[in-house]
Amino acid sequence: MDDFNQQYQQPYDNYPQNQPPVVNDSGSIGWGVLGFFFPIVGLILFLVWKNTKPKCAKVAGIGAIIGFVLGLVVNFASAALVAGTSALTL
Description:
About 70% of the residues lie in helices and about 0% in strands. The protein contains 4 helices and no strands. The chain is mainly α and about 90 residues long. Helix 2 runs parallel beside helix 4. The protein has one domain. It is rod-shaped and about 75 Å long. Keywords: Membrane, Transmembrane, Transmembrane helix.
């Protein structure tokens, strides 16, 4: 029984000390697509990840910017089209 206790009561010196956890920061295009279709989510992910996952944050932020700007362009173009069409019918 004494050997059993010695085997499982080893000191913790073999474990790595003061090493940061491994973070998967691949910068996957999926985060950009998510940010494109849901710009507010992309902005939130950018703000949360900008220090811990800079590649993923950048991709999500770029997707959010592109989605937001493209959404504005489509909205203004459709408003101009509707205004132009309604002016012709009067």
